[in-house]
């Protein structure tokens, strides 16, 4: 299955609990950390929920 790399670019400070939990679910918790996950609809939805704090990294 295809994978997708996500990099955290925004801070979770002053964000809701749900957004912080979404970042943890994506394997992110510190600025500029990169996580590689399977490209599934659920992961895409999580990225969409915190799109202002993450970016998709191209290989």
TrEMBL record:
Large ribosomal subunit protein uL30-like ferredoxin-like fold domain span: 4-54
GO-annotated biological processes: translation
Domain of life: Bacteria
One term of GO molecular function: structural constituent of ribosome
Keyword Ribonucleoprotein carried by entry: yes
Keyword terms, alphabetized: Ribonucleoprotein, Ribosomal protein
Gene3D superfamilies: Ribosomal protein L30, ferredoxin-like fold domain (3.30.1390.20)
Assembly and oligomerization: Part of the 50S ribosomal subunit.
PANTHER family noted in UniProt: LARGE RIBOSOMAL SUBUNIT PROTEIN UL30M (PTHR15892:SF2), MITOCHONDRIAL RIBOSOMAL PROTEIN L30 (PTHR15892)
Family per record: Belongs to the universal ribosomal protein uL30 family.
Name of this chain's protein: Large ribosomal subunit protein uL30
Provenance organism: Sphingomonas turrisvirgatae
